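Final report, Chapter 2: Outcomes

The project's central promise was a pipeline that accepts a single protein chain and returns its three-dimensional structure in a standardized token representation, suitable for archiving and comparison. That pipeline is now operational. To close this chapter, we reproduce one record exactly as it appears in the project archive, with the input sequence first and the structure output second.
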Amino acid sequence: MARRVVVALLGPVAWAPPGIDPDRWRTALAEDVVDLLATLNEVETAVAVTPADRWLADAVVWPDMTVYEVPTPTVDAVLATLTGYDQAAVVAADAPDVPGLTLGKLLRPLTTRPVAVAPVEGTGPGLLGVAARLPVPDWLPALDLDTAVPADVRAGAPRPGDVVTTPGWRRLRGPADLAALDPAFEGWDATRALLSGRTG
């Protein structure tokens, strides 16, 4: 069986709801994504941060979870640090209510294709995550989850079919995304508590 890892990239968060401290917001989002990763089956899980953000990783990781320090908060920087795996996915840490099934679908195409991408639902560019067979194909460009789109990934591929687009999900990057949160949806406990004014 292929050895697989899903890495939450704890990158910068450009927006926080009015009245909520940006660091507390970022921590709540990351905690929910990390808690979700811990429930995934048949994959190893990890987080990646820049050295300046090591505090965030220390605040949210589970005891047995690996923390990778990367020079820049980009997909290629994370993939370059991974050794011993056959497949890897790098996902954004500002999607606290993303279903585990959505992340599973990001990895599934790697049995037959070298790269898969999950777009961000809603407005603006960005990706929810990128998955690749390792070693990383040399045509995969440097990718920022905040600005890249599936076409950027496909542009360098030898064949368009080398990149599969999987179902996307929203990231909490503005008021419209926040309004789309479903209170009846399970998960996102830390984010829910912060939004409701409870500190846990």
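Archive annotation: The CA atoms of residues 49 and 69 lie 5 Å apart.
This record, like all others produced under the grant, will remain available to the consortium after the project formally closes.
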